[in-house]
Each structure stands twice: as structure tokens, then as C-alpha cells.
Amino acid sequence: MKQIYTLLLVLLVSCTTVFAQDNAKNKDIRELLILTKAGELGVQAMKASMESMRKSNPNLPAELWTEFEKSFTKEVLVDMTIPVYDKHYTHQEIKDMIALYKTPLGQKILEKTPLVMQESMVKGQEYGREVAMRVLQKMQAEGKMPKN
What we know:
Helices cover about 85% and strands about 0% of the residues. By secondary structure, it is mainly alpha-helical. It has six helices and no strands.
């Protein structure tokens, strides 16, 4: 009987320790996501995507879009993202990222990343057009496509 109580006590302590560690990790993940403005960026991306959907579906009532948009807050997006970070990063890695983003370099990364991504997308689109034109011209020269 004493062995069962000892086993139960060990299991209880282990579970409590794991639960406390998970809570600490989740708290740190939330701090990281707030520090990186992940929720705000997610809301911005969702609004841009919704604008495209609105234009593609002009027959849908405006109220639908308004109600849809209300469901996407930065807090909801952060809460949804915590398990993803929990799955892919250790607690120490989360702590290290927080430490990085609190440095001047980390702050610069946060500031410049959206600009770098935007400019990179423009460059990628330009390159895609150039490649498409070269392929089109080559295929036309080979008689595989009609010339316009």
C-alpha cells in the first residue's frame, strides 16, 4: 500500500511539474508573439486577404465580411499560434528568441522584416515576369506557340 501512495505521489509531482513547465513555456510563447507583433501582422494579412475575397465575391452582403472580420483579433490569432510554437520550439529556444528580439538587432529585425519581405516579393514577381517572357519568346521562336 505504501508503494502505491509513493507511486501516486511521484506521478502527481511529475504531472504538476510538467504542467507548470508547460504554463511557463506558454507564457513565454505569448510574450514572444506579443513582442514580435505576430497578432497584429496576422490581422493585417487577414484583412488584405479578405479584401481580395470581397472583390471576388461582390454579391455577398457587407455584413458577412464585417462579422467575419470581428472573429479575427490579435488575441485570437496569438492563442491559435501558441500550440504551433510549442510544437516546433523548445522552451529554451523560445527564451532565446525573446532575448534576441529585446536586443537592438532583434528590434531592427522586427522593424525591417516586413519591408524585406515586401521588397523580396516585388523582386520575385519581376523575375517571374522576365522568365515568363523568355519562355514565351523561346516557345514562339520554336513554333510551339503562336506569335501575337
